[in-house]
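During the no-cost extension, the postdoctoral fellow (Dr. R.K.) reprocessed legacy sequence entries with the updated structure-token encoder. One reprocessed record is reproduced below for audit purposes.
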Amino acid sequence: MKSKCCTNVQIPNYNFVHVDSLTNAGGVGLYVNKKLQYTVRQDLELPTDGCESLFIEVKSNNVSGKNCIVGVIYRHPSPNSQAFQLAFTNLLEIMHSEKSNYIIGGDINLNFLKYQIDKHITDYVNSILSLGCISLINKHTKFSSTRHHSLLDHIYTNIIDDNTTTGIALYDIFDHLPIFANFNFHPKCAKKYRPKIRCLKNCDLLSFLEDLNTALFDLDFHNQNISDINITCNNFILMFNNILDQHAPLRFASRKETRSFHKPWLTKGLLTSISKKNALYKKMLSTNNPSISAKYKFYRNKITHLKESLKQNYYRSKFENCRNDVKKPGKLLMKLFLQKQKKAK
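Re-encoded structure tokens follow.
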């Protein structure tokens, strides 16, 4: 978009906010619904050559809700990206210090598919992840018949929401595919989730196996004239679940059991050791015996060390499993950050 430009697409009830390019190509713009209250944040525009950026701050409709910064960036193709990377990380630090929610999209011309082979890309991705910024697009967005496909179009955010929908639209108007992200800023108030588990207190394994054997005999797969294997499998699953519900019915998990679901690194053996430690603690308080006190402290320190070790191994394996995905490590980091923040409160 050059100066004195006009948009060739008029959308009813939307304002078009834009920043023009000083060259024959480029420029950025946003269509903003007229119902939204917003201010243009010129102080956030990136002060780098070969780059246009536009940022607006949208006021939240909720009294207690946060405003959201929405931005769009176009970085002209250039082999030297260090100046842009420095300016963008500085921008993220400013928004992080303001504790702002943000959504930033655009054609950045940095190929995230080279994350493991290009040191500059690796450093850039790691630096934005360390600031809680997630890239939502993880598939190639530009196709080429002479070169490898590339991922040059990005959407960044620090908003973690399972209801967010992201994707790439298949449209051949240009060599870049359009990208999109749909955020739900008015989620329904969901009831507090209480997981269900099997009650094995009165479960008799031999009786369960006898009933299962009888039901399998009555089902008689060989004499059924069913050609669809899916119907046969569904009949078996339905029969198995009915018998399982009779011997080990579902019940709501207790608060203690629910908390353990949020700490999957706590093994059954470790939970048994924690119970033993708690018993030692009660005995130490009631007897005031120095030998029991020494035994409790030794046992407590061993369990603390083991818990930290299991937790580190758990998250290490999680990061190893998602090392080839640009999107997942950021979500994992943000989840850890939110857990720590919640614990501090």
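Residues 14-182 form a domain with the Deoxyribonuclease I; Chain A fold (CATH 3.60.10.10). The mean pLDDT is 83. The remaining legacy entries will be reprocessed before the final report is submitted.
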